[in-house]
Amino acid sequence: MDDFSTLIGGIAGDGINEAGMTISRLLSRLGYSTYMYYDYPSLIRGGHNFSLIRACRRKVATHTDGIDVLIALNQETVEKHKGRLKGSSFLIYDADKVSLEGLAVKGCGLAVTSILKEAGAPAIMKNSCILGGYCKAVGIAWEVLEETLKKHMQKKLDLNLLVARKGYEQAEHFCRVEDLISSGPGSQASLPPRPLLTGNQAMSLGLIQAGLGAYVAYPMTPSSSVLDFMARYAGDFGLKVIHPESEIAVMLMALGFAYAGVRAAVGTSGGGFCLMTEGLSLAGMAELPVVVIMAQRAGPSTGLPTYTAQGDLHFVLHAGQGEFPRLVVAPGDAEEAYIWSGRALNLAWKYQIPSIILSDKTLSESLYSFHGDLAGEVKEESPMLWDGNGIYKRYLQTENGVSPLAFPPQKGQAIKTDSYMHDQQGITSEDASLTREMSEKRRRKGQSLAREMEEYETVKVYGQISSRTALLFWGSNKGVCVEAAERLGLRAVQVLALSPFPEKKLIDVLQGVERLLAVECNSTGQLAELAGCWGIKVDDRILKYDGRPFSREDLLHSLGGAGI
User: Fold this and answer.
1) Which of 51, 121, 188, 336 could form a Cys-Cys staple with 331, CB 3.0–4.6 A?
2) What is the band of 186 on the pLDDT scale with cuts at 50, 70, 90?
3) What is the biggest distance separating any 2 CA atoms in the chain, rounded to whole angstroms?
């Protein structure tokens, strides 16, 4: 099969996310590139959760509405998702809880409750049982499931294997998902299965590769799994991982790390970033480097805590009082999340500025096959350090606006940092000429950063490059826009860096475009408005703002409605 989608659904507490990840691992072991979208309400138990896993022979980073296999752990899953079923679809379900009455679909019911009771297994193991049935139905060998569970199952492995085997034996065969790794001539036999990473995990690894020393965060969906990942592997990478009492403390603690010479990053969502903005301005005035992972969710206020949006672009670009340079990047998939998080950390330290990685729930929590060959290399780059001669001037005036760094203690030297207007040594001043000079120094830093950003691929073009119709997008809409453009013969243009804005590059790649459509997950078209500030006219806006990402069908339907 070239394109195969599976949906598994149940309630919070059923382990739907982990089950979806297991399906992704199984398909990845067969050589497929996979993408998993996880949908869940803000509930610890109850509510409807589902994972939608898509497997393709080519790189994929979006989901489809239509599915090939539906795995239902309760009746609600069938009722909510029966509209996704195609004529060739197959349904695997818990026969003790689900009825297919009135539904004309091929199906296989497993006596999950009876199997668990007979094995003396707890209810949470229903996933293992039904995943066993899934493997039998789609032709995945028992040995592949067994090896996958042995590698990733940490608790009660033997019991999980027992109920999985019973589910496997009880299920019916439906179709065969081809094993691309061992399918003979022309297969990918020389390539191991690709690793699976969420966007948050990719960002974490990119930061670590670039020399991260400390991660400070207060949990806030959808950035919370970064804190979990960093804490889990802190010992392996020598990280300091701290969970303070508030987002205000988070930012100030990270700036304290920076003053002491430790590369620090923080993570949050829009509501937490609101509390960090005063500290962000402190970073701007004190010229302290910090990286912020800002994972968007639907707002305003609490909004939809577990759903996606791209509504914070203008907020992030203008957060904090006064004028100071900042880097804002918006990766579109796991590979870009990895490479640009590392660059964000290196550039923050090179220019002594705040760097913001603008993500969203879709990118942060979706699971991707990680194509390392496309990601590029990340390594730590050293900032400009003080040579130790003379009296140290923390805010020394230089041609590019960047002052040499020194960290306490330094014998015989005072290493100042100041939120107040200051002179070159960091001594508070209200002098008019000094105020002007320091403002110009910060502006020169921004100009130097903008010149360096021209060396990077901050605008990318996909699809039919000669097309006179183009899609303009940013962030996690990359996967769906690229796929739609390839299908319809359009040009697709991705803006990766949002500050400094790549005006010249964007104008260049839009040469010959007669109709430009912005595709965004907000209600106003924030990238379209930003592009307009630089004289780039967007003709149409295709916007989605219900908390859910575009599916392939969503975007194709909207483009059809726009006459494309």
Assistant:
1) 336
2) very low
3) 85
